[in-house]
Specification:
The structure is a homotetramer. Chain A has helices at about 40-50, 110-115, 130-145, 165-170, 185-200, 230-240, 260-265, 330-355; strands at about 5, 10-15, 20-30, 65, 70, 75, 80-85, 150-160, 160-165, 210-215, 245-250, 265-270, 270-275, 280, 285, 290-295, 305-310, 315-320. By secondary structure, chain A is α+β, with helices and mostly antiparallel strands. In chain A, the strands form 6 sheets. In chain A, strands 1-2-3-7-4 form a 5-stranded antiparallel sheet, covered by helices on one side. In chain A, a hairpin with a 2-residue loop joins strand 8 (about 150-160) and strand 9 (about 160-165). Chain A starts with a strand and ends with a helix. Chains in contact: A-B, A-C, A-D, B-C, B-D, C-D.
Chain lengths: ~350, ~350, ~350, ~350
């Protein structure tokens, strides 16, 4: 496979460049007979789309998904669900100056090195616009999982150096997440984050952040031993999202300096432990406790300042950001984290059904 | 696939439990006509094996690999390379008391939940003994990559709170790694780490750590866009190693609080950047700069102290560690990190050859 | 995977039902930098489309393919090629009477048994309309292979009992294939076949046929040992085409009654044999001689006569053919056989490049 | 994948050459908690092994399988089942004369062309000895399927021109199959076939044959639409067996000259049809009726007579058969056909469980 397909039994294949006629995908292996809630899918797409607020890029995309197959009389048929999302605000001319120039920390140079021939408009295939297709598949998977009692909820827990503490994360009021522009459940910290992003946007710069995700209701037994451990697939899924540089499950990097006697999660019952440093997964398989993990996003590469670069002959050039850009993509990425989580979990759910 | 196979073109399938007659694997897709250096493979296995030093478990295993196929007159034939590593020091009786008991933070409960029927001796399939098979495949892959100019080198950069700084990592003298028991290139810090592990071993407890890995000589163009990004696969590979809780590529979690203008890697030439926060990968594809990443290991679950647990009926029981154990597995995991890195890179190397 | 994806490195995923808004697909792994000849793709689609002649169904479909991604400035970029073919002549009402009825020898009953919920209009996903997507991918693959000197040519060699002899097949003038409605290179036999189909169409009945395919210019070394033998994949690919009931490679079923001394192909040089009973493949790997095989198609299930069937409660009902139908699909399937052959060969071509 | 793995959820990976220390394999995805009948597995291996009778090769192999993992206290654990079958009667010196010579219609030349470096002893990886590993996996799968009420039975229906008629096949007394050396249920025809093989063996020549396989008890709904049709996978599985040149499902090649009105299988109830030309599969999915198919085997390539060939420089040489050989492999292949059928069906059985 050439990298645009994900999953074993529940699979998503995506296609499309930022500035082509449309992006889209094919969802295979979704169970038949499921009544689709189309409004929720659109709501999820709206959480990702550009132009939501003053904080993010003003590119205008209505991001309306069109389903082409696999749904009959409102219910899934078990056959592939093909869909497209037309690109509306293409403005390809914006990018002509990048034909022979590699923007620092973008994928321009690596695509050129890999393929020789690349679509240089708007990031082409490397554009985060591709993630809209993941949101469609994820929104479907999330609906299905919810019917099985599995809930996925992600939020921003850090922007720059403004960070929720462990206690703040544990006590987070998840109902507040969508009430603020940065999707942080602590409204005080949210305001600080907003101010930070606004000031960085004014400077023409960008800033990183982190997303915390918690999944409840996962039955014990999902995940496979050895290579396809549940948290290994979650890690791959998160690291496949644009701008992600790190992933940690449960106690994560903090576990390095812990003792085994502190870290071990004593059992208080079957599928119940008094602590949850394991993050709901032991030996790669869910144990019935909540799964939680954290994903680090670097600052996006598009900035206004002039930067040193080279052209395709290796000659020095100066690149200045002209396009529209997000000072911080992390709030928009919350729904992508949830989508990829749902895609991973539905795949493992079906894999477990196969053997049980 | 049921989780015991890895890779697309270069694949490894492993089998075997800690206390069965043998573990082993099948390597598929290794290029034909390669003269195998068997000594190096054994040396790599010796770096992983138990009983190397006073710091680690005293289980005795000679870990001698037997190749059964795919190599003819010393050279690979392109057909599957089957191999086994006999288990010698089995002592199954040690584990009878665990038949109906779930050890905290082990995979006992999750395997039971997944399969209903489990091999409770010595961790069964969840034992890190499985990683010996990965070392065999990794050692082969590493030999091949080295001929292409690709060098993989990992070392311990943190045990507990004793940690190498960025500068210490950059200036590390890699020739010192194998000179000390913890495989840390800074001999001063290495001694501190040894002392820490020794004291924790004496307490019957365990401690976590971190491994830093750097890969040089990777040509630009390896990795696939979207889901199979090079660092996403590296992340999955690392997270599939026993006890791993976190992964970060390049600037990693530190990137969260950086500005784009700081983080962007300005080009100084084709495939050359003045900084390398990207960690040698942009848009999921190698850019020709060194690749580096860091992997976090929790403290191992086996400790001597009595712990609260439940039996298979959910009744409270007390579990005490009786088996041999490592106070810290991280030094032994260095070669596993290298092995999985080599496996991932060889797969992407072949995938790139297919289209170029 | 749920059955709608094909291939290892060069892959095709298709979606779409006969009577939805569109069918389409995603092509992954096509090499970058290839200048696409769009006219040839459309020509291939026209060879498959309904309504070409008086012999076939009069359903009107212009079958215009729209490429949505993966091609930039006329050349492939190496990223997924998404495409759709809108359905025009839907007339869903034609099929309301089939909601609760299973047509004999169609897939109505088996889809119901598998999924519980099915799209009963026009055969849904089981309709041969799906093969239009294969023709798009196949036409691209064929263009690429042709540049490597590989030529694929299929034709009808039997309709009902009218059959080309081995000598007639060997001496076939391939330039005549497209000159007649049945796509048989022997114009005399072609006329007989036309007459036969016309008379069977008048009776409201249908008839089977066979397609012979020859591939020249395949270098020695394509195909994999053991399970993924080249002819095993060709067989799977052909048997995946609607209405196919049999496949034979080289000497095929005729080899049963041959002696080894007759059947063995003596070498006259490297990659050259005096006979070619092997059909260009030995041990699952191409040997440099022409590859040839034969595919058997049953008579299509849609006929005018009243037939005994059951409804979804198992009660007897009478089904009469009301829809438009082909008396013989075999002439339209010639291009599908070529397409699937090209898809299989391009995949093995890339797999071989990866290791060589 | 490099061709030595089969299946999606239930998978078999095989390794090993004819004259190495051992062949073997890894079975993944077999359901946990299944009590294994080891005697039956050995009985199946004995049906395939050489030296069973005067008709077949006198190579001596006891073909004793050793299970290394995945079975605990007699029951499967759900983890990979690794196994080896030691090679005993290796006599590698027999083959030194073939180092630089390509035997006609063997895979010597094609392996050389593909890999450059090959194991020339005893056919290496291309030897049918590899199929012993398939028999192990198939015997396990067959046991499991039998508990679900699915029975697989194959027999020889043709050797050379001696052939069972359709009526003889339908009325075959399956209890007689193992009573005769050729595994044909019609004892009269069996005697004729034995005589034919004996006389051809005396001539130092070989002869082809055909195997008929019938599967009963398959529930409706197994198989996937489009590419992974049940009969397409069965076809691939059969064509992957050494010496197979053709496959037909249900009416097969005979369907070419049938009318739709004759061929259609009228329903007499849900999952019941009055005829079964479809061979139990419609649209690629089982319909509840018996599945039956036929597989054609060419005469094996090893014969005593001198044959024209070339050496690795392309110079003419004469090859004479010196090794031990079968005049007809078809009776020994009956159990391989059953094994591959079981492997295919168990995979689809699990795939269907995943979505139902």
């Amino acid at each position: 496979m050439a990298g645009s397909s994900y999953g074993t039994l529940f699979t998503l294949t995506t296609f499309g460049e930022s500035h082509g006629p449309a992006i889209g995908g094919v969802i295979e292996g979704f169970p038949a007979g499921f009544l689709v809630d189309f409004d929720t899918i659109q709501t999820e797409l709206d959480r990702r789309k550009p132009g939501q607020s003053k904080l993010v890029t003003q590119r205008k995309e209505s991001d309306k998904v069109q389903f082409l197959s696999g749904i009959f009389e409102g219910k899934t048929t078990g056959t592939p669900i093909g869909f497209i999302i037309p690109n509306e605000d293409q403005k390809s001319k914006d990018y002509d100056h990048l034909k022979n120039t590699f923007r620092p920390s973008h994928a321009d140079y690596t695509y050129e090195a890999k393929y020789g021939h690349r679509d240089y408009t708007g990031g082409g295939r490397a554009s985060a616009r591709e993630t809209a297709s993941r949101v469609v598949a994820g929104a479907l998977a999330k609906q299905f999982l919810l019917k099985q009692g599995i809930t996925i909820c992600a939020f921003v827990d850090q922007i720059g150096s403004i960070k929720l503490s462990k206690v703040e994360i544990e006590n987070a009021d998840l109902s507040r997440i969508e009430e603020n522009l940065v999707r942080c459940p602590d409204l005080g910290k949210a305001q600080e984050m907003e101010n930070l992003i606004a000031s960085i946007k004014k400077q023409g710069d960008s800033i990183g952040g982190s997303i915390f995700c918690r999944v409840t209701g996962v039955p014990a037994g999902l995940g496979e031993p050895v290579f396809d451990k549940l948290h290994a697939e979650l890690g791959k899924a998160m690291l496949s999202i644009n701008a992600v540089k790190g992933f940690e499950i449960g106690s994560g990097f903090g576990s390095i300096s812990m003792l085994g006697s502190e870290h071990n999660d004593a059992f208080s019952g079957l599928g119940k432990t008094t602590t949850n440093h394991s993050g709901g997964i032991q030996g790669g398989i869910s144990n019935g406790m909540p799964i939680y993990f954290r994903t680090a996003f670097k600052p996006v590469a598009t900035i206004v300042a002039a930067q040193n670069s080279v052209d395709s002959s290796g000659n020095p050039v100066i690149v200045s950001g002209k396009g529209r850009h997000d000072a911080c993509v992390v709030p928009r990425a919350v729904v992508i984290v949830e989508a990829m989580t749902a895609i991973v979990l539905l795949d493992f759910y079906l894999r477990q059904k196969a053997i049980n």
